[in-house]
Write a structure and sequence with these properties.
Elements (H helix, E strand, L loop, with lengths): L6 E5 L5 H11 L4 E5 L3 H8 L10 H10 L8 E4 L2 H7 L2 E4 L19 H13 L4 E5 L7 H12 L5 E5 L9 H6 L4 E5 L3 H13 L8 E5 H32 L3 H9 L20 H14 L3 H28 L8 E5 L14 H11 L3 E5 L5 H11 L7 E3 L3 H5 L4 E4 L48 H4 L21 H7 L5 E4 L6 H6 L3 E4 L7
Parallel strand pairs: 1-2, 1-4, 2-3, 4-5, 5-6, 7-8, 9-10, 9-12, 10-11, 12-13, 13-14
Helix pairs in contact: 1-3, 4-5, 5-6, 9-11, 9-12, 11-12, 12-13, 13-14
The structure holds uridine-5'-diphosphate-xylopyranose (UDX) (2 copies) and adenosine-5'-diphosphate.
C-alpha cells in the first residue's frame, strides 16, 4: 500500500511553487503544506495581503488554506526555516528557478541547475527520515540521476524516492490550470517502491479525474515537460512566420489560423500571431533542448529547435522595423506610446517580454517612449530596460494611464493584449455580450473581444474573462483592471496625425479604429485606414 502523504514541503515560493501549493493545500485540508524560500521578503509577502505575484483568483485560494476562512485548521504555511520544513515532510517538491546559464559550459543555452542542486543538498543535510523528493521545476532530461547521486553521497543511510512531476500551468490562468489540468504527469522508476511513491503523489491530486493522471518513466517525464513547451513555442513561431507572408501577400493571419486550426490534427489554440512570445519558459526551454541535442551530437535536431527562437527574435525585430519604416526611418525625438509591458495579460511578470526587446530597438533609433501597463510597476519597467539597453532611462517615461501616455504620440504601439486596450467600450451594448459563446473548448474560443473583427481564436480559454475576477486586496492599485477600457475616441484626439497604431497583439478592431481616424498596422494583416 502506498504511504499516505501527511506533510508536504515545497522548496521555492515563486510562480510555480506558490500557486501550486496553494491549490494542493486548499484541496487537501488534511495535508499540512509548508512553502519555503531563501528570500525573507518573498515569504513575508506570501504571509501578507500583498502576495508577491499577481494571479487571478490566487488570493481567494490562499486565504482559505492559509487563514482557514472556510473554518478549517489552516494548512498552508510559509517559512524561511527550510531545514525544519524539510525534516517534517514526507514529500518535498523542488520548485526552484532553473534559468539559462550565463557563464561556463553551455552558457546562453543550458539550464542552470545550481538552485536545484542546492535544494537537493539542503534536503540531504536536513532530512532525518526517508523522503519522497519530487522535481517540479522544469529540468533537463537526466536531472533525477544527479539528485540520486547527491543523496547517495550525502545521506546514504536514508531512502529517497525521486519522482518527476512537472507543472504545466500558464501564468495569468494558473489557478484554473491547476484546478482543471489537461493532465498530471508523474514520472517514476519501474520498481515497486518507486511506483508506490508515485501513487502516494497521485493521491495528493485528489480533485483530478484519475484518467488525467499519467504515469511514465522518469526520463520521459522530464523530457515531456521540455517538449511540451518547445512544441507550444514552435506553433507560435510557425504562425508568426506565416504572418510575415500574410503581410506581403494580402492573406490574413487570423483567417489562416482559423482555417488551419479547424483541422483537429492541428487544433486552434496557441495559434495567435503576435509580435513575439515572451515569458520565463519558452525561450529558456527551447534553448535547453537545443543544448541537450548539441550535447548528444544531434546537430539537425538542435538546428530545428534553434530556429524557433531565431524566428521569435526575427518577429520582434520585424515589428520594430515596421514601426520605424512607417515613421520615415527616423525616430529621433519622436514620442511613441507603448501600451502594455507584461509578457501577456493578467500577470505583472515581464520576464522575456517582447516589449523589452522592441522598446530597446526603438530607443536605439532615437525614440522617446511613453509607457503604460495596468499592472507592471515603473520600477520594474526601468529595471527591465536597464538590463536590456543601459542608459535607456533618459528616453523613457512611465505613465499611470494609457491616455496620458498617448498625448502627442507619433505612434501608439500595443505590446500586451490587456482587455483594457480592446475596442469594446465598457458599458456599451457589445461589452461582454458575446463572452462564452464558444461551443467547443478545444476549438475556437470566442471571448469578450466582441467588437473585434478577429476570428475568435484566442490564446487560450481564459477563465478570468468568464468571471469578473477581482485582485487581492492591497496588491493592486488598479482594481478595475479587468473591466476598464481605454477610450479610443479620446486617444484619437490627443495623438499626432496620421494617428498610427501598431497592434502587436491583434486586439483592436482595425476598422473601428480607422473610423475614428487611425491608421492601423496589425500582425499578419494589411494596413487599415
Ligand atoms: C496529407 C494531409 O494529411 C491531407 O490533409 C492533405 O490533403 C494531403 O496530404 P496524406 O499525404 O495522404 O495527406 O497522408 P497523411 O496521413 O497526412 O500522411 C503523410 C505522411 O506522413 C505519411 O507518410 C504518414 O505515414 C506520415 N505521418 C503521418 C507520420 O509519419 N506521422 C504522423 O503522425 C502522421
Ligand atoms: C507556458 C506554457 O503555456 C505552460 O504550459 C508552461 O507551464 C509555462 O510556459 P506561459 O509562459 O505562462 O506558459 O504563457 P503562455 O500562455 O504559454 O504564453 C507564452 C507567450 O507566448 C506569451 O508571451 C504569449 O503572449 C505568447 N503567445 C501565446 C502568443 O504569442 N500566441 C499564442 O497563441 C499563445
Ligand atoms: P518559477 O517561475 O520557476 O517558480 P521563481 O523565480 O518565480 O521561479 O521562483 C523560484 C524561487 O525559488 C525563488 O523565490 C527563489 O528564491 C527560490 N529558491 C531558489 N533556490 C532555493 C533554495 N535552495 N532554497 C529555497 N528557495 C530557493
Amino acid at each position: 500500500l502506498p504511504k499516505t502523504v501527511k506533510r508536504i514541503c515545497c522548496i521555492g515560493a515563486g510562480y510555480v511553487g506558490g500557486p501550486t501549493c496553494a491549490v494542493i493545500a486548499k484541496q487537501n485540508p488534511d495535508i499540512q503544506v509548508t512553502v519555503v524560500d531563501l528570500s525573507e521578503a518573498r515569504i513575508a509577502a506570501w504571509k501578507s495581503t500583498a502576495l508577491p505575484i499577481f494571479e487571478p483568483d490566487l488570493y481567494e485560494i490562499v486565504e482559505v488554506a492559509r487563514d482557514g476562512t472556510d473554518g478549517r485548521r489552516p494548512n498552508l504555511h510559509f517559512s524561511t526555516d527550510i531545514a525544519t520544513a524539510i525534516d517534517e515532510a514526507d514529500l518535498i517538491f523542488i520548485a526552484v528557478n532553473t534559468p539559462t546559464k550565463t557563464a561556463g559550459l553551455g552558457a546562453g543555452k543550458a539550464s542552470n541547475l545550481a538552485y536545484v542542486e542546492s535544494a537537493a543538498r539542503m534536503i540531504a543535510e536536513a532530512a532525518t527520515s526517508d523522503k519522497i523528493v519530487v522535481e517540479k521545476s522544469t529540468v533537463p532530461c537526466g536531472t533525477a540521476d544527479s539528485l540520486r547521486t547527491i543523496f547517495a553521497a550525502l545521506a546514504p543511510h536514508l531512502a529517497f524516492d525521486i519522482l518527476s512531476n512537472p507543472e504545466f500551468l500558464a501564468e495569468g490562468t494558473a489557478i484554473n490550470d491547476l484546478l482543471n489540468p489537461d493532465r498530471i504527469l508523474i514520472g517514476s522508476l519501474k520498481d515497486a517502491k518507486s511506483k508506490s511513491a508515485a501513487e502516494a503523489l497521485a493521491q495528493v491530486y485528489n480533485w483530478v479525474p484519475r484518467n488525467r493522471i499519467v504515469t511514465v518513466n522518469i526520463w520521459s517525464s522530464e523530457l515531456a515537460k521540455l517538449a511540451a513547451n518547445c512544441m507550444l513555442a514552435q506553433r507560435i513561431s510557425s504562425i508568426n512566420s506565416l504572418s510575415a507572408i500574410c503581410e506581403a501577400t494580402g492573406a490574413e493571419i487570423e483567417e489562416l489560423a482559423q482555417v488551419v486550426g479547424l483541422d483537429v490534427r492541428i487544433g486552434g489554440r496557441m495559434l495567435k500571431a503576435s509580435a513575439g512570445f515572451g515569458g520565463s519558459c519558452f525561450k529558456k526551454d527551447v534553448l535547453s533542448l537545443v543544448y541537450i541535442a548539441e550535447s548528444l551530437h544531434l546537430e539537425e535536431v538542435a538546428l530545428h529547435w534553434k530556429s524557433v527562437v531565431d524566428l521569435n527574435e526575427y518577429q520582434k525585430g520585424r515589428f520594430a522595423r515596421r514601426i520605424t519604416r512607417a515613421l520615415h526611418n527616423t525616430l529621433a525625438n519622436k514620442r511613441i506610446a507603448i501600451l502594455g509591458w507584461a509578457y501577456k495579460k493578467n500577470t505583472r511578470d515581464t520576464r522575456e517580454s517582447a516589449a523589452i526587446t522592441i522598446a530597446g530597438q526603438l530607443i536605439a533609433e532615437g525614440a522617446q517612449l511613453a509607457i503604460y501597463d495596468p499592472l507592471v510597476s515603473e520600477k520594474q519597467i526601468f529595471d527591465d530596460l536597464e538590463s536590456a539597453c543601459p542608459n535607456a532611462s533618459s528616453s523613457v517615461k512611465v505613465y499611470p494611464d494609457a491616455s496620458a501616455a498617448c498625448i502627442d504620440a507619433c505612434a501608439v504601439v500595443i505590446m500586451t493584449e490587456w482587455d483594457e486596450f480592446k475596442t469594446d467600450y465598457a458599458g456599451s451594448p457589445t461589452f461582454g455580450g458575446m463572452a462564452n459563446s464558444s461551443t467547443d473548448d478545444h476549438h475556437l474560443t470566442s471571448t469578450s473581444t466582441s467588437a473585434s473583427s478577429d476570428s475568435g481564436i484566442d490564446m487560450q480559454d481564459d477563465p478570468s474573462e468568464k468571471s469578473a475576477v477581482l485582485p487581492a486586496p492591497g496588491i493592486d492599485d488598479n482594481p478595475n483592471y479587468s473591466t476598464k477600457r481605454i477610450d479610443w475616441r479620446h486617444i484619437a484626439a490627443v495623438v499626432r496625425r496620421p494617428r498610427l497604431v501598431f497592434d502587436g497583439r491583434n486586439v483592436v478592431d482595425s476598422d473601428m479604429l480607422a473610423s475614428l481616424g487611425f491608421r492601423v498596422q496589425s500582425i499578419g494583416k494589411a494596413d487599415v485606414f
